[in-house]
Amino acid sequence: MTGSRRGRQAEAARNDLIVLAAAREVFAAMGANAPVSAVAERAGVGIGSLYRRYGSKDDLLRHLCLLAMRQSIAAAEDALRFADPRDGLAEYIRASVALGTGALAPLAGAIETTAEMRAAGRRGRELLGELVSRAQTCGALRADVTALDVAHLIEMFGRLGPVAAGTEEHAIRQRLLAIALDGLRADSGPAPLPGPPPSEAHYVARWVRAT
């Protein structure tokens, strides 16, 4: 592989992250019907450039969702390297919330998913399941919490998109996240959780596009 080709690929990867960050902000604010022009404007790129690189709006959204899932997978793999399972799970939750992973949740059911997206989703859930299992095995996580409880918690905190560190909004979110993390602890004397745990069928079905 030539240096110029590697350079172009590195630039494309950087541009992907810029567009993804912009899309998280735009879709968090405007929902699934946000125009691509708003994403382009927030990212500081021309809309023509986006369409030349990604094709249709749905192709762009699928690409961004896949990229976001790969970020979550990387965060989970990093968290599994922590010696303390409690610290690993907490770090994964904090990292995922900081990324604003839940900001793309409004796209669920609005676009057709691909086999690659579905495989990445399964891998992400498997890794999260490992994080939860490790934390429960060592007695750090309450026994009635499931991996999908944690996934929905991350989504709820991330739906507003990423927020700049040092701002009052960031401080508020960090306080609320700390409260939520304490609620996951097995040693905090928690009351039983109401209702049944989330099902994987429900979690996955949200991404089936309505016809």
Question: What report would you give on this structure?
Answer:
This protein is mostly helical. The chain has one domain (3-205): Tetracycline Repressor, domain 2 (Orthogonal Bundle). It has helices spanning 3-30, 36-43, 47-54, 57-79, 85-99, 115-137, 147-158, 168-184, 200-205. The chain is globular and about 55 Å long. It starts with a helix and ends in a 6-residue tail after the last helix. The relative contact order is 0.12. The model has no long low-confidence stretch (mean pLDDT 87).
Draw up the topology in text.
Blueprint: H1 3-30, H2 36-43, H3 47-54, H4 57-79, H5 85-99, H6 115-137, H7 147-158, H8 168-184, H9 200-205
Summary, kept brief:
The protein is mostly helical and 211 residues long. Helix content is 66%, strand content 0%. The chain has helices spanning 3-30, 36-43, 47-54, 57-79, 85-99, 115-137, 147-158, 168-184, 200-205.
Q: How would you describe this structure in keywords?
A:
mainly alpha, Tetracycline Repressor, domain 2, 9 helices, 66% helix
> What would you call the structural class?
mainly alpha
What is the CATH level 1 assignment?
Answer: Mainly Alpha
Quaternary organization: single chain
Low-confidence stretches: none
Helicity level:
55-70%
The CATH superfamily appears as Tetracycline Repressor, domain 2
Question: What's the architecture in CATH terms?
Answer: Orthogonal Bundle
How many structurally independent domains? 1
Number of helices: 9
- Rg measurement, Å: 18 Å
Per DSSP, what share of the residues sits in E-state strands of 2 or more residues?
under 5%
Give the termini separation: 43 Å
Sheet with most strands: none
Task: Report the CATH topology name.
Answer: Tetracycline Repressor, domain 2
> How many β-strand runs?
0
Q: Which H/E pattern describes the elements?
A: HHHHHHHHH
Q: Per the principal axes of the C-alpha atoms, what is the gross shape?
A: globular
Average pLDDT, rounded to a whole number, is: 87
